[in-house]
TrEMBL record:
Official protein name in the record: Fibronectin type III and SPRY domain containing 1-like
Keywords for the protein's UniProt record, in alphabetical order: Coiled coil
Fibronectin type-III domain segment(s): 166-273
PANTHER family, sorted: E3 UBIQUITIN-PROTEIN LIGASE TRIM36-RELATED, FSD1-LIKE PROTEIN
CDD domains: FN3
Pfam families the record matches: fn3, SPRY
Signal peptide: none
Biased composition (Low complexity): 338-348
Entries under InterPro entries matching the protein: B30.2/SPRY, B30.2/SPRY_sf, Bbox_C, Butyrophylin_SPRY, ConA-like_dom_sf, COS_domain, E3_ligase_FN3/SPRY, FN3_dom
Residue ranges constituting the B30.2/SPRY domain according to the UniProt record: 304-501
Domain COS: 107-164
SUPFAM superfamilies in UniProt: Concanavalin A-like lectins/glucanases, Fibronectin type III
Length: 515
C-alpha cells in the first residue's frame, strides 16, 4: 500500500512537472516571438523615422528654394529699375553736354540776327531737355533688410522634435465582462491622460480562442482577430461559435497620433457542447460534409416509416404508382413502395455483408450519431433543414443500446422529434415505439436542449420561440446526439451555449410538473 501511495504521489509530481515544462516552453516561445516582433518593430519605426527626417529635410530645402527665389526676384526688380534710371541719366547727360557746347558757340557769334535765332533755339531746347525732366534720385534703394531671417525659434522647434505621444493601456473591467447567448461583452476603463497625450479617439480590441487559461499563445491556438474603430468603452461580439474553452481578449486606445499598448489579456470562459457527426456510424446512403448530412440513395426504395397516415387515399397512392397493403406493425398506417419486383425490405444479413464497419447503421435506419457523449450537465444544439427535405428525426440515444437496424424513437434507447412533409405534413415526438402527434407547423430550425441530470429533453421551434415537446425521464447511460435523414438533408450548429430563452421554457415546464 505504501508503495502504491508513493507511486501515485510520484505520478502527480510527474504530471505537475509535465505541465510546468509545457508552461515554460510556451513562455520561451512567447519570449522568442516577442523578441522577433521587437526587432521587426524596431526596423519599422527606424525606417519611418528616416522617411520623416527625409520629408523634413525636403520641406526645409523646398522652403529655402522659395525664400531664395523671393530674394532673387526682388534683386532683379531693383536692378532693372536702377538700370533704367542709369540709361535715362546717361542720355540726359549727353543731351545736356551737346546743348552746353551749342550755347558756348552761340556766345561767340557776332551777327545779332544769328545770335538771337540761336539763343531762341537754346531756350526751346533747354525747356525740352531730358535733363530737366529726369528725377535725380534713385527710384529704389539698396536696402534688403526686409529679407533678414532668424530661424532660432524654428531651430528650437527642430530640437524639440520627439516621438508622438501615445495613450496608456486601458484596464479591462472584468466584473463588467459577460458571456451570454454565444456573445461576449467586453468592458474597460481608460486611464485619464488626455491632457498629456491628447484625447482618445477610438479603441481596438483583439480576441482569440484557446483551450488554455493563459495569455501565452500555445501551439494550435487561433490567431488574433481585431475589431477597430470602437468609440465606446465596451463592445459586444455576437454570433460566436464556442469551440474552445476560453476566449482571450485585450484592448488598446488610439489618439490622433498613434495607438498605445494593449491591456493585460483577460480570459473569458466559453464552455459549450461541441460535437460532430460520427461518420463511422452513418448509414451508407448518408453523406457527411462538415456540419451537414444529406441522403444520397443507391436505389428507389422507400422506407415504410416515411409513408403518410391512414387518411391518405389508397386510390391516390395507386395512381402515383404505389402498391398498397396494411402495415403489419400498425393497423393505422399504410405500407407502400414503388411498384416493382424489388423487395420492400432488404435482408438484414445481406445488407450487413455489404456495409463497412460494425457500427454503421443499415437497413431502414438512415441514421448517424454524434461523436461526443453526454453524461451530465445541460447541453444545447440546433439543426436547420436543407432544401427539398422530406423526412428527418433528431434527438438522443444510448449509443451502446441502439442496434444497427434500430430506428430513432422505436425503442427505449432513443428519444426523437420526427418531421415529414412527404405527401403530407407530420410532426411527432417518438419514444419506445410510441408517437405523440404535435399540432404545429413544421419548423425549419429546431433547438435541442438536454439536461442529463434532471432527465429533461426539450425540442424548440427556434424561429417562433415555441416549445414543441418535452421528454421527462431518467437517463441511465451516456447519451449521444442522433439524426435520421431521408430525402434532402440537415445542417447542425454546435458550440452553442444554452440560450437564455430556454430558461423560461425550463422554469415553466418544471412549474407545470410540480402542479
Amino acid at each position: 500500500k505504501l508503495c502504491l501511495f508513493q507511486q501515485e504521489a510520484l505520478r502527480r509530481i510527474i504530471n505537475t512537472l509535465v505541465n510546468k515544462n509545457e508552461e515554460l516552453q510556451h513562455f520561451l516561445d512567447s519570449i522568442d516571438s516577442t523578441r522577433t516582433g521587437l526587432q521587426e518593430e524596431s526596423c519599422k519605426v527606424m525606417s519611418e523615422l528616416e522617411v520623416e527626417l527625409e520629408k523634413l529635410s525636403s520641406a526645409l530645402e523646398e522652403r529655402g528654394v522659395q525664400l531664395r527665389d523671393v530674394i532673387k526676384e526682388e534683386t532683379q526688380r531693383k536692378e532693372a529699375e536702377l538700370q533704367r534710371q542709369l540709361s535715362e541719366g546717361k542720355f540726359a547727360l549727353l543731351s545736356c553736354e551737346e546743348l552746353l557746347e551749342f550755347a558756348n558757340q552761340t556766345l561767340t557769334l557776332t551777327n545779332e540776327e544769328e545770335f538771337l535765332t540761336a539763343a531762341k533755339q537754346i531756350k526751346e531746347r533747354v525747356t525740352m531737355a531730358p535733363a530737366f525732366r529726369l528725377t535725380t534720385r534713385p527710384m529704389v534703394s539698396g536696402n534688403m533688410s526686409q529679407f533678414t531671417v532668424d530661424f532660432s525659434a524654428e531651430k528650437a522647434g527642430l530640437l524639440r522634435l520627439n516621438f508622438l505621444p501615445v495613450p496608456r493601456a486601458p484596464e479591462i473591467d472584468v466584473p463588467g465582462c459577460t458571456v451570454r447567448d454565444n456573445s461576449i461583452t467586453v468592458a474597460w476603463q481608460q486611464i485619464n491622460d488626455a491632457d498629456e497625450n491628447g484625447p482618445i479617439e477610438r479603441y481596438e480590441l483583439e480576441y482569440r480562442k484557446t483551450n488554455h487559461n493563459s495569455s501565452l499563445r500555445a501551439s494550435g491556438d487561433a490567431c488574433w482577430e481585431r475589431i477597430c474603430n470602437i468609440t465606446d468603452t465596451q463592445v459586444t461580439i455576437s454570433g460566436l461559435k464556442f469551440d474552445s474553452l476560453f476566449i482571450i481578449v485585450r484592448v488598446r486606445a488610439r489618439n490622433k497620433a498613434a495607438a498605445g499598448d494593449f491591456s493585460e489579456p483577460v480570459a473569458m470562459e466559453t464552455r459549450a457542447f461541441n460535437f460532430g457527426f460520427d461518420a463511422a456510424t452513418a448509414h451508407a446512403e448518408l453523406k457527411i460534409q462538415g456540419d451537414m448530412v444529406t441522403w444520397e440513395p443507391q436505389g428507389t426504395y422507400t422506407p415504410h416509416w416515411a409513408t403518410p397516415k391512414e387518411e391518405e387515399s389508397p386510390a391516390l397512392l395507386q395512381e402515383l404508382g404505389f402498391r398498397v397493403k396494411l402495415c403489419v406493425e400498425s393497423p393505422y398506417r399504410l405500407l407502400f413502395s414503388p411498384s416493382s419486383s424489388r423487395s420492400a425490405t432488404p435482408s438484414p444479413n445481406k445488407t450487413a455483408g455489404n456495409r463497412a464497419g460494425r457500427e454503421r447503421f443499415a437497413g431502414e435506419s438512415y441514421t448517424v450519431l454524434g461523436d461526443q457523449e453526454i453524461n451530465g450537465g445541460c447541453h444545447y444544439w440546433e439543426i436547420r433543414l436543407l432544401a427539398d427535405w422530406k423526412s428527418h428525426s433528431v434527438g438522443v440515444a444510448y449509443r451502446g443500446s441502439l442496434g444497427r437496424f434500430d430506428q430513432l424513437g422505436k425503442s427505449t434507447s432513443s428519444w426523437c422529434l420526427y418531421a415529414s412533409q412527404w405527401l403530407q405534413s407530420s410532426l411527432a415526438a417518438k419514444h419506445n415505439n410510441r408517437a405523440k402527434a404535435l399540432d404545429w407547423p413544421l419548423p425549419q430550425r429546431i433547438g435541442i436542449y438536454c439536461d442529463y441530470d434532471n432527465g429533461e429533453l426539450m425540442f424548440v421551434d427556434v424561429d417562433q420561440f415555441r416549445l414543441l415537446h418535452v421528454f421527462k425521464t431518467k437517463f441511465s447511460q451516456p447519451l449521444v446526439p442522433a439524426f435520421t435523414v431521408w430525402c434532402g438533408g440537415i445542417s447542425m450548429a454546435t458550440g452553442l451555449q444554452v440560450p437564455s430563452f430556454m430558461g423560461n421554457f425550463v422554469s415553466t415546464n418544471r412549474s407545470l410538473s410540480a402542479d
